[in-house]
Structure formats: structure tokens, C-alpha cells
């Protein structure tokens, strides 16, 4: 059971693991041992509250398919068990990050001094460029 918050958990039957072979160099066992893992979690069929489902499905994350399935590939470690733990931790972080409230953006104005500095730089640059022209004889 994966605990997202103290009152929200994901049951083991909702998470599907599929062992796969890891990519990259691996020595003698590279083509024999399936130590990497694909974690699949169907958001729409899960027991998460509707708010969590809605926020997850609205994310523009490449790990979420059009069907609403989260696919996480874990291959950092050499053992299947550690890769499973890594994938579960990443799923937990994804769900927690999706449900954090978004801080509203406050519009700000540039200060008078910064506006003045900007205009001064522009006029100085204009003078430099004006000196590049051909000299009239």
C-alpha cells in the first residue's frame, strides 16, 4: 500500500509492475536480467478522490498517456526491488506535486529607477550606433 497522505492510500492492486531489461551498458547480465521496471497506474480507475484525479489528468506530463495511465520507468538501480521502490516514490511525488495549490501570480511594475536606467542605456546605445555611419565630407 502506497501512502500519499495520512488519509489517502493507493492499494497494491491498483499499481501494476512489469519487469523489463534496462537500457545501456550492463556487462554480462545486460541481456539476461530484467532489473528495470515499468510502473503503470490508471488514474481514472483508481480509488483517488476526484480532486486528485482531476489535477493529475490536467497535468501536461509526458509520463501520463491520453488514456490517463501514468507510466514510470525506473532503471537507476541494479536490483528489481530497489527500482520498484524508486518508481513508487516517483509516483508518490508526482501525485503530491499535482495537488499542491498553485501560488497566484501578482503583477508588478518596474521601479522608476529601473525604467530610467533602461532608457539611459537605450539612448547611449543609440549614440554608439549613430557614430558607426559614414562620415560626410
Automatic annotation (TrEMBL):
Ranges for domain Prokaryotic-type class I peptide chain release factors come to 21-37
User: In which family does this protein belong, per the annotation?
Assistant: Belongs to the prokaryotic/mitochondrial release factor family.
Source organism of this protein record: Marinospirillum celere
InterPro entries linked to this entry: Pep_chain_release_fac_I, Pep_chain_release_fac_I_sf
Q: What is the lineage of its organism?
A: Bacteria, Pseudomonadati, Pseudomonadota, Gammaproteobacteria, Oceanospirillales
- In Swiss-Prot or TrEMBL terms, this protein is called Ribosome-associated protein
Any one GO biological process: rescue of stalled ribosome
Q: Where is the composition biased (Basic residues)?
A: 102-137
Tree of life domain: Bacteria
Q: Name one GO molecular function term.
A: translation release factor activity
